[in-house]
Design a protein that fits this description.
Layout lengths: L2 H12 L9 E12 L2 E13 L4 E5 L6 H8 L7 E6 L2 E2 L7 H9 E5 L10 H10 L9 H7 L15 H12 L6 E5 L7 H18 L2 E5 L3 H4 L4 E6 L2 E7 L6 H13 L9
Parallel strand pairs: 3-8, 3-9, 6-7, 7-8
Antiparallel strand pairs: 1-2, 1-4, 4-5, 9-10
Bound molecules: adenosine-5'-diphosphate and magnesium ion (MG).
The site of magnesium ion (MG) has 3 residues, from α2.
Length: 271
């Protein structure tokens, strides 16, 4: 474990209750979107729990509701029905600005498109949430860039960085407030597979060394295999879930996933 991770680990385990590892609970979540004259059901009565310190992958075809679910966990959108609980607090019932404050201190977000500010250097991108009012965690922006292996790139703007480097900056930014939960929506979706695997390795390190809860949305078995457990969505519902420890490799996970989605092994998996 690196020095930085040790600092973060100590903070996470000894700081006040608010930074202990919060379990995530979702009960009966439904979310609909209006598209012209029709209503799209993005999520339907979805319930799931993520244990403290667990690494969960949410898989499903395009349009199955993965991003909607992640946005609800992050408190970026509100459910039409159901509740989201983080650390014993019902965020789905929180009003702004309390929700914003809560989200900033508890949840770090990583997106497929990195979402960096093009005119800012790497280090300023990492600092930005704090400048915008988020709390500063134990590690400063410099420390976080070192943690993700980019200390030598801190003055570079995003367009001078590779995709993998940009995603590392985005991960450092997501950690600036020292959130106990890291949420990533297709974090490797814009990267080649080798770079994608190095991002997965980084997420796994952050998960393992700081016992941080990680939820990754992906449709790639090569990404999901880094998780402890896979939750499969279809048409806004939880179709199945399974632990990854018995699966030998990404190929085994891929065929398990294919069987579930095609309906071959639904029975016994759904919970
Ligand atoms: P996934 O991330 O699994 O691809 P999403 O959660 O993005 O799926 O979307 C689930 C469904 O909800 C899709 O049919 C999508 O078109 C619809 N949807 C998602 N967000 C919106 C939105 N803001 N407005 C209208 N429809 C949306
Ligand atoms: Mg999506």
């Amino acid at each position: 474990m690196s020095m930085d991770l040790e600092v973060m680990d100590r903070e996470l385990s000894t700081n006040n209750v608010n930074v202990t590892l919060p379990p995530l609970e979702m009960h009966g979540l439904s979310k609909r979107f209006r598209q012209g004259t029709t209503t799209v059901v993005a999520l339907e009565h979805l319930s799931m729990t993520v244990e403290p310190g667990e690494f969960v992958a949410i898989m499903g075809n395009s349009g199955s509701g993965k991003s909607t679910l992640l946005n609800l966990i992050a408190g970026l959108t509100r459910p039409d029905e159901g509740t989201v609980w983080i650390d014993g607090e019902e965020i789905s019932a929180m009003r702004d600005p309390r929700l914003t404050r809560f989200r900033r201190s508890k949840v770090g977000l990583v997106f497929q498109a990195f979402n960096l500010i093009p005119t800012l250097s790497a280090i300023d991108n990492v600092r930005l949430p704090v400048l915008a009012g988020a709390p500063q965690g134990a590690l400063a922006a410099e420390d976080l860039l070192r943690l993700v292996g980019l200390q030598h790139r801190s003055a570079h703007r995003p367009d001078a960085l590779s995709g993998g480097e940009q995603q590392r900056v985005a991960i450092a930014r997501a950690l600036i407030s020292q959130p106990a939960i890291l949420l990533a929506d297709e974090p490797t979706g814009s990267l080649d597979s080798v770079t994608g695997q190095s991002i997965c390795r980084l997420l796994k390190e952050l998960h393992r060394d700081t016992r941080r809860t990680v939820v990754v949305v992906t449709h790639e078995p090569e990404v999901a295999r880094w998780a402890d457990r896979v939750v499969v969505l279809r048409d806004g519902r939880k179709l199945a879930e399974f632990p990854t420890d018995a699966l030998q490799d990404a190929g085994a996970l891929a065929s398990r996933y294919r069987d579930i989605v095609s309906g071959v092994s639904q029975k016994g998996d759904a919970t």
